[in-house]
Design brief:
By secondary structure, this protein is of the alpha+beta class. 29% of the residues lie in helices and 29% in strands. The protein has 4 domains: 90 residues, Rossmann fold (3-Layer(aba) Sandwich), CATH 3.40.50.20; 41 residues, no CATH class; 135 residues, ATP-grasp fold, B domain (D-amino Acid Aminotransferase, Chain A, domain 1); 75 residues, Glycinamide Ribonucleotide Synthetase, Chain A, domain 4 (Alpha-Beta Complex). It contains 13 helices and 24 strands. Strands 3-2-1-4-5 form a 5-stranded parallel sheet, with helices on both faces. The protein has a 5-stranded antiparallel sheet with strand order 11-14-19-24-21. A hairpin with an 8-residue loop joins strand 6 and strand 7. It is globular and about 55 Å long. The structure holds adenosine monophosphate and glycine (GLY).
Length: 398
């Protein structure tokens, strides 16, 4: 099977790493990819958000399956364009991707499907949560417990343009549930926890994610299926009924409140950095499962996960305010030699040297039989790597 992977982050590198192990894979192409993916396949200088150029590339290469990583191209309709051109695609149509592209649309679907979520508030008054309606790279949400935070939050979120959603402030631990979907059926992956805040102790602003671990304790197969039945299956049914069936990875961000699980948001794609912890646990052929989902044939497919994984994101000094470019990165090979997986998220090659090229630069993944082993392996890998301004959380996985 010839695969085209669309995207250039740590999520795509993790997927590429797993796909490269599939006996079904005959060629791996990426658009645009990154220096880590380039070691596993052929990277093409085609932007992820250029639907016509992607279809052109897929047709020229004779691609059997396109896998679209990021939300921006999905919301813009890249999967529709590929399907119209006869390419099998793993990723939702623009109509289904609106579950992430618009918080107001997601609320409407949740209400129709009977999915528990935070109440929408008519008036912004602390405590509450202010959210940009549209895409904001994980940075369009401000939790406001005081009037001063609310005043600042309204200004910050308004900067994304578009309308705002004001929500009830919920409390509880969070989990990320990702499921492969074929429009009707859903197959869950290991439940993960994301560390969204910039600094240790969950201080500072929200980011795209500073680290993850999987699996989360207490989620055996029965508990995962129970959560899936509350937060995922009703939405799949609702989207199918609206004529926009969801084909791809449906990701529910869930808060485990005293009143039970409540959905904070849906994403229309694999989470990042969740995928960097979840994919290495998959015991089996992920490519076969993604192709089955894209083809509407998930019935009978299941995915087993083994062991535990912890991902620590190495970010630029000023992330999330700003990224960094051009700083040489040292020690990737040493971290890999120590047993860690190192996924490239925001890197570039300059004269043969890997340099920084973004906010979240690398994901360092440790694996082990237990979460404690995986955590030790991840931080041992982190200890080998350095670049100017490098910053990371020291408290991923407790
Ligand atoms: P979202 O992008 O909607 O998942 O929001 C990002 C983060 O903001 C979540 O992971 C939560 O930590 C926090 N958050 C979002 N909505 C709420 C809410 N209603 N109550 C409390 N925290 C929230
Ligand atoms: N880590 C959260 C996300 O992928 O949106």
């Amino acid at each position: 099977m010839k695969v085209l992977l669309v995207g250039s982050g740590g999520r795509e590198h993790a997927l590429a790493w797993k796909l490269a192990q599939s006996p079904l894979l005959t060629a791996l192409h990426a658009a645009p990819g990154n220096p880590g993916i380039a070691a596993l396949g052929v990277c093409h200088p085609v932007r992820a958000d250029d639907p016509e150029a992607l279809l052109d590339l897929a047709s020229t290469l004779g691609i059997d399956l396109a896998i679209i990583g990021p939300e921006v191209p999905l919301v813009a309709g890249v999967a529709d364009e590929l399907r119209r051109g006869g390419i099998l695609a793993f990723g939702p149509s623009a109509g289904a991707a609106a579950i992430e592209g618009s918080k107001a649309f997601a609320k409407d679907v949740m209400e129709a499907a009977g999915v528990p979520t935070a109440a929408t508030l008519a008036i912004a008054r602390p405590p509450c949560v202010v959210k940009a309606d549209g895409l904001a790279a994980g940075k369009g949400v401000v939790v406001c417990t005081t009037q001063a935070e609310l005043d600042a939050g309204l200004i910050a979120v308004s900067a994304f343009g578009g309308s705002l959603v004001i929500e009830e402030l919920l409390d509880g631990p969070e989990v990320s549930l990702l499921a492969l979907c074929d429009g009707r059926d859903a197959v869950p992956l290991a439940v993960a926890r994301d560390y969204k805040r910039a600094y240790d102790g969950d201080a500072g602003p929200n980011t795209g994610g500073m680290g993850t671990f999987a699996p989360v304790g207490g989620y055996d197969d029965a508990a995962v299926e129970e959560l899936l039945a509350v937060v995922c299956r009703p939405v799949l049914a609702e989207l199918a009924q609206r004529g926009t069936p969801f084909i791809g990875c449906l990701f529910a961000g869930v808060m485990l409140t005293a009143d039970g699980p409540k959905v904070l948001e849906y994403n229309c794609r694999f989470g990042d950095p969740e995928t960097q912890s979840i994919v290495p646990l998959v015991d089996g052929d992920l490519l076969e499962a993604l192709a089955a989902a894209a083809g509407g044939e998930l019935a009978g497919v299941s995915i087993r996960s083994e062991g535990a994984a912890v991902t620590v994101v190495l970010a630029a000094g000023n992330y999330p305010e700003a990224g960094d470019t051009g700083s040489p990165i040292h020690g990737i090979a040493a971290a890999e030699a120590a047993g860690a997986l190192v996924f490239h998220a925001g890197t570039a090659l300059r004269g043969g040297q890997v340099v920084t090229n973004g906010g979240r630069v690398l994901g360092v993944v440790g694996r082990g039989a237990t979460l404690a082993d995986a955590k030790a392996a991840a931080y041992a890998g982190v200890g080998e790597i350095s670049f100017a301004g490098m910053r990371y959380r020291t408290d991923i996985a407790g």
